[in-house]
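Submission sheet (multi-component)
Chains listed below:
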Amino acid sequence: MRRRLAIHLSVLTVGAAVLRVAVVPAEVCPPVTAEQVVVAAEAAIGWLVAGQDPSGRFTYGYHRGEDRVNPSYNEARHGGVVMSLYQAHAAIGSEAALAAADLGVSYAIRDLFDHGDWVAWSPGGIVPVGANALLLAGLAVRRADTGDPVHDDLMRGIGRFLLSQQQADGSIFDSWSVGAPVPGFGLYSTGEAAWALALLERVFPAEGWGEAAAHTLDYMATRRDRVEGRLTRLPDHWAAYTVAELPPRLRTGLRLDYARDLAGYFGMRLRFEAQRRGNGINLALRWFPGPPAGAGTAAEGIGALRTLAISEPALADIVPNVDERIVCTAGFMTRRQETPVSSAAWPSPELISGAWFYRGYTQMDDQQHVLSSLLAAIPVLVGEEAG
Amino acid sequence: MSVGLLVVAMVVAVNPFRSRLGLRPEPVSALPLAVGVGAGVAGVAVLAASAPGLLSALQITPETFLIAGGLVAIVAGARTMFFPRPFDEPPLPGWREGMWPIAFPRILSPEVIALSLALVSQEGAGTTVAAAAAGVGGFALLARTRVGERAGRLLAALGAVAGMLLIAVGVWMMIEGVRDV
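Outcome: structure written.
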């Protein structure tokens, strides 16, 4: 009998050990304060500002081991960084962020294309939806934050461009160019456009922008992945921003269910990320801590949903878990950020400090997405610290 | 998770039909059976009550542990497909038969342990224990009856059905664990 008992206990012990190591490693959430998060956000802003040239263009990417700047550029990411910097001014009052974002806008509006019906940023001859949507989102955040009407005409012009790309089913073509339209969908441009339109509703209410955003949100919630050829649902943080931005009159059951689904995707992604330590057997089973932009998008998505959940009774039940994920992510991302000390030994510490690297490389959108996620964590932490 | 689904999950985890096949064919006496049922349900209660603290100490969110519990349920359900009868465990004499093999390993099997820890986050410890007790009650009723050859075949078939249901429960748990925030 003792031998049989030993066999059973051995099976239980080995099974529990396999589960622990392979399926449920510890989810490590280092403690963090609101003040530490603000410091981390300011350091990320510092990296973006230090890499901005007088034209308003940002440093795109940097290979730490090779001490080499990536000379490429991406207009959608430019628009995203501008938007994130405007969020930073709205959240923590960073004047450096506001100035850099304004300079980033001036970089874009040098290449405006006036179609007659609409106006939009046209880098390189085509008119991309994603870049324009994020530029517009940034301008709308700025408008709501500062009240400055200087870009109102441009914002409405870009909004009309986005509407011109919107199809009857709510889908949005990803670019426009002179000649016959080429139907095509971007991975994220649809959600970016929907969010920009939802933000326009906030700053210019009763002009129909919100209804247009909601139409595309329904497309994303119900048909997009099949129509656009994806096998799985896209965990789209821009869709999360969109549903969170819609006014209460546009919050239907379908849209709130979509918000709940998105919160689930982001929650799982962040729980998984918290399991990553990048060493020992954990490295073999969970790989390196994920690309900062990946963790950042999930965290900013769930951060956007928090603003909805705390004001929407139908989603009140997810608020505690949402807060837990946001704070946990802020904890491990502040730990993963490069500091003046950790960057001092490298050839170009100014291109390292304040950034998040993935296997020796960082890119502007790494800072953008993590910065936005940290900004979303501040009110949660302030609330927790206030008791 | 609804209470109904929780009951189904715990009953098929206990799997009264397969567990009965793991005892001798003769009816089990009242005393060892009472000891086994009591110890088994008490074990589930201890696990369920300690689940939040245990998972917190292990730095595992309940949502993530739902995935692990689902995986255990799937493996255990699949095992039932291939091994419809548990391995024979020589019983201890007298009332101690209730401890071995009734309480352990028949009632407190790996899947019951895993689900007792994982499903507390769904409906609370009390409901989880009550759901497990329903399965244990069914097992106790079967344990008081003689199992002949034909009854053994019937129990094996019903045990396989319960195993299939356990796989379905495991899949549900994994999906829910992924979808939860």
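Remark: DSSP finds nine helices and no strands in chain B.
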